[in-house]
Structure formats: structure tokens, C-alpha cells
Design brief:
By secondary structure, the protein is mainly α. The chain is about 55% helix and about 0% strand. It has a two-stranded antiparallel sheet. Strand 1 (about 75) and strand 2 form a beta hairpin. Helix 5 runs antiparallel to helix 6 (about 120-160). The radius of gyration is 23 Å and the shape is elongated. It starts with a helix and ends with a helix. The model is unreliable at about 1-10 (pLDDT under 50).
Length: about 160
Amino acid sequence: MTVMESTPVQSVSVQPVSLVRPAAVDACASGPRPHPRPDGQDRYTISEVVAFTGLTAHTLRWYERIGLMSHVDRSHTGQRRFCNRDLDWLAFVGKLRLTGMPVAGMVRYAELVREGEHTFDERQELLEQTRRDVIGRIAELQDTLAVLDYKIDFYAGAQRTSGRA
């Protein structure tokens, strides 16, 4: 018998997450935080990007190697020089990671972006599928939250009844 089978189900109020899409905003067009430097003066070393994004230098190099990032400019000495557009892309990739999208899916999306506007339909479908997956995960988490709330209330009630509150 599982915990779920032995736990009586009670009506628990859980606030649903809105599944309505917000107004169209291009998450790649602007980052969630202001850029450290204005466009035109936006040349960042890998250590500056590490400090700004929280990613490791190894991760940034790996993203470039697997094709998740487009070509990163180099200085005359061969050091990577990132720009604000790279920071925006990394912020978007971070959001894709949070959705649970597999790395292969993120790389495919990056390839489609580099191929151009004729891939809009395929990109849209990839993002819509990811959105459906996220909605499913949210529903599972809301069900899990309801069970946790029930159990917490059960134990709080048991303590009150036994006089241990």
C-alpha cells in the first residue's frame, strides 16, 4: 500500500496557475536584468559573464562547443568576448533549462534560430510542446502540494487533539 492509497483525499484549495499566455514579449530581445554596460561598450570576459550569470566558465565553453551558443567573438589574443546579446541568450537558455527541456532540444532550437526566419513554425512548435510539458508538471506539483497540505493539516490537528500544541 502506498502513502497515497492510505491517505484519505480531502478537498484542498490550491490556487491554479494561469495558463493564459501573457502578451507577446521576445525573451531574447531583452534580458531579465539590465545589462552591466550599454550596447557598443558591451565586451565581457568569460569571468565577467560568470559573475553576471552564475554559470561556470566550463559551462559557457561547453555551451559554445555543443552549439548552444552561436559564435562568440574573440579578442586579438583569442580570449572570448561576450556581448549583451550573448547575455540575453544565456538568460533565455536558463529559462529553457528551468522548463526541463533536454539539452538536445535547446541545441535544436539554437540551430533553428541561426537558420533564420523560415524556421519560425518549427521553433514555435518546439516551444509549444515545452509549454505543454511545463503545464503538465505544474499540475503534478499542484496535486503533490495538495497532499502535503492535507498531511500537514492532519498532523497539526492530531497535535491539537492530543494536547501537544
